[in-house]
Amino acid sequence: MAEADIKKGLAGVVVDVTAISKVNPETNSLLYRGYPVQELAANCTFEEVAYLLWHGELPTPVQLEELQTFERAHRELSHVAKHAIDLLPLDAHPMDVVRTAVSAYGAADPSVADPSPEAQLDQAKRLWAQLPAIVAYTQRRLRDEELVEPRDDLGYSANFLHMTFGEVPDLVVVTAFDVSMILYAEHSFNASTFTARVVTSTLADLYSAVTAAIGALKGPLHGGANEAVMHMFDEIVFADRAEGWLDAALAEKRKIMGFGHRVYKNGDSRVPTMKASLDTLLVEYDRADLGELYTALEQAMDARKGIKPNLDYPSGPAYHLIGFDTELFTPLFVASRVTGWTAHIREQAAANALIRPLSEYVGPEERHL
Ligand SMILES: CC(=O)SCCNC(=O)CCNC(=O)[C@H](O)C(C)(C)COP(=O)(O)OP(=O)(O)OC[C@H]1O[C@@H](n2cnc3c(N)ncnc32)[C@H](O)[C@@H]1OP(=O)(O)O
Ligand SMILES: O=C([O-])CC(=O)C(=O)O
To answer: In the UniProt entry, which residues are flagged as the active site (predicted)?
Structure first.
């Protein structure tokens, strides 16, 4: 096989069909089950979007109420997840903590081996409801703070923030957070979703697939970039240092975190919506300086390389302003993307084929001892 025929990184390779989302780089659009993500962010809650991803249609009021009741009934941190977290050292990375807690939660689920679509949907919904408790407890533990019990009079995002910070912030903050959850929820065959589908294709259970997907999301070329963006801002500090910092970083051949995308080459369709939410937070927290740094680096990157920001660029500083530690940013991505992952796991399971590509052997020719 000619080297040119090898699709390294599977770039440009279509490996299956999906009805869950459509990423269209030509029109710079992203559709969840046919709906533009910007419209969903402006008009729906994350709970409605989760329902849409799993079921293919937005919920009726009765269906939404059922989902909300279910989610509220499964919000409390499970004993097994708490024990698993408490066993880990305090300096473990929060992504490792969340990955371990999800794995432990799955191991203790008596329905884990039931591959029926109904059982998998139930598992997906429970895991989705558990993740805010897992992430919030992981954050609080790092600050030597006690677990906060959920409140069942609050929606998903308000309760998530209440469990993390012990209080519900202003509506503008809850709304910006909810928008981020909607935007992070789904993005076709990205690396972590593909990982989940590979694991599912072996007929392994949903928790194994999600645990593996969390591992794939951790890397800075994928979800880990939202943390890396904040570390970069911490290095640069002032807007007037952005150009010099960028020139030095590019000279060292560093990848600039939060910029570039495998599919979008002319800007990520989700960035304008997340940037608008970030702008509301910059006003709320009176941090015009951070907005200036954001813009200065974006403009410098455009001038030097013509490479545009991806979703991790505005969401990193947004999560920082809301009050999360930087290492918690990718776990927040997990809490959202679990909806997309589990929709894909169910889609893969419903029309399965073992995913097993070929490779071109370039080792030594046959030889003998
Ligand atoms: C929600 C998400 O997961 S979105 C992705 C988050 N990841 C990041 O922000 C990490 C930084 N970005 C990157 O590393 C890349 O843009 C990726 C991994 C996202 C996409 O990578 P690929 O599609 O493989 O593009 P590739 O790495 O081949 O880039 C093409 C060219 O643009 C350059 N380039 C792409 N992104 C960047 C970047 N962020 N900084 C500097 N140069 C870059 C590459 O060096 C390459 O240049 P070359 O042709 O001179 O070698
Ligand atoms: O699609 C990708 O490769 C990465 C991404 O933006 C996502 O998963 O949201």
So the answer is: 261, 312
**Residue 166: pLDDT over 90:** yes
Fold of 223-322: Cytochrome p450-Terp; domain 2 (1.10.230)
Q: Is the predicted pLDDT of residue 226 greater than 90, yes or no? A: yes
Q: Tell me, rounded to whole angstroms, the distance of Cα 328 from its chain centroid.
A: 11
- Token readout for 146 is 């006690």
Give the tens place of pLDDT for each residue, 242-276. Answer: 999 999 999 999 999 999 999 998 899 999 999 99
- The per-residue DSSP string of 64-101 comes to HHHHHHHHHHT-SPPHHHHHHHHTS-TTS-HHHHHHHH
Residues with CB under 6 A from ligand 1: 9, 220-223, 225, 255-262, 305, 307, 310-312
pLDDT tens, residue by residue, 112-130: 999 999 999 999 999 999 9
Q: What is the mean pLDDT of the chain?
A: 97
Closest ligand 1 atom to residue 263 Cα is 23
The one-letter amino acid at 226: N
What is this structure's pTM?
Answer: 0.98
Residue 150 CA to ligand 2 center (angstroms) comes to: 31
Assign 259 to helix, strand or coil: strand
Q: Whose CA is nearest to atom 9 of ligand 2?
A: 187
Cα 337 from Cα 37, distance rounded (Å): 14
Instruction: Tell me which architecture the domain covering 21-210+342-351 has in CATH.
Output: Orthogonal Bundle (1.10)
